[in-house]
Predict the structure of Ubiquinone biosynthesis accessory factor UbiK.
Amino acid sequence: MTKTDLLKKLAAQLTDALPSHLSTFKKDFEKNCQRILSRTFTKFDLVTREEFDTQTKVLLRSRKKLEELETHIKQLETLLKNKRHK
């Protein structure tokens, strides 16, 4: 779910919580609510779950590559050390 979809859904839920006899007020409230929520959430600098999951995968791949490189460096250092002792 994108940030925009989340905010629209949240604004709609807040609007639905209003009494039904305020129908003319509801549309303005929903529009204003969505605008206020959007501005507030932007200040929080939040990310969507999809963005978070994507970055988690990138981090895991980077961590794996780093571990592989560290292992390779250790192997090369061992080889170099063994050659010096011969």
Observations:
- The longest helix spans residues 49-84.
- Helices lie at 3-16, 23-44, 49-84.
